[in-house]
Specification:
This protein is α+β, with helices and mostly antiparallel strands. It has a single domain, classed as Beta Barrel (Lipocalin), CATH 2.40.128.20. It has an 8-stranded antiparallel β-barrel. Strand 2 and strand 3 form a beta hairpin. The longest helix has 20 residues. It catalyses: prostaglandin H2 = prostaglandin D2. Belongs to the calycin superfamily. Lipocalin family. It is found in: Cytoplasm, Perinuclear region; Golgi apparatus; Nucleus membrane; Rough endoplasmic reticulum. One of its GO terms (molecular function) is small molecule binding. This is Prostaglandin-H2 D-isomerase.
């Protein structure tokens, strides 16, 4: 009985690791083309914080810049109540171009971030696997260089999010706002 339980747990872990490896990364990723200002158009997640805060979320801006050592400095500015809040994150490059790691100093969660697909001047689809002591979750972001994006790109975001096992109620096209848009550096 004990051996059966261990083998089932081993298979479940192997399945989870395999699922993580099936998330693609943009072929021939060109990091310098990823830099600049983006708008967060869509967000999908099966995390508890997303379920709790989903009704409050609005479009925000994200500025990506490269560091001297090849990592990415990611600064998001978003409306929170009647203020604008900034969050800075350092995405550390991995051996695989287009794949990054980040550890949240606030929550201790580990993030495996992949630029799934982008054409650099219109949109970017980014998937993140998040692991922490209480479990793991998936997050998919849709970035755009403008506040508007074609229905085809929006549909691709929804389709990809579903492919990652996210349900329709876990997928959100962020409501547009002008709040905090000018504050992005």
């Amino acid at each position: 009985m004990h051996a059966t339980l261990l083998s089932v747990l081993g298979l479940a872990l192997l399945g989870a690791l395999h699922a993580q490896d099936t998330i693609p990364v943009q072929p021939d990723f060109q990091q310098e083309k990823m830099t600049g200002k983006w708008y967060s158009i869509g967000l999908a997640s099966n995390s508890n914080w997303f379920k709790e805060k989903k009704h409050l979320m609005k479009m925000c801006t994200t500025v990506i810049s490269a560091t001297a050592d090849g990592n990415l400095e990611v600064t998001s500015t978003y409306p929170k109540g009647d203020q604008c809040e900034k969050r800075n994150s350092l995405y550390t490059k991995t051996e695989q171009p287009g794949r990054f790691r980040y550890t949240s100093p606030r929550w201790g969660s580990k993030h495996d971030i992949r630029v799934v697909e982008t054409n650099y001047d219109e949109y970017a689809l980014v998937a993140t696997q998040i692991s922490k002591s209480t479990g793991s979750s998936t997050m998919v972001l849709l970035y755009s260089r403008t506040k508007e994006l074609s229905p085809e790109r929006m549909e691709r975001f929804t389709q990809f999010s579903r492919e990652q096992g996210l349900m329709d109620e876990e997928i959100l096209i962020l409501p547009q706002t002008d709040k905090c848009m000018a504050d992005a550096a």
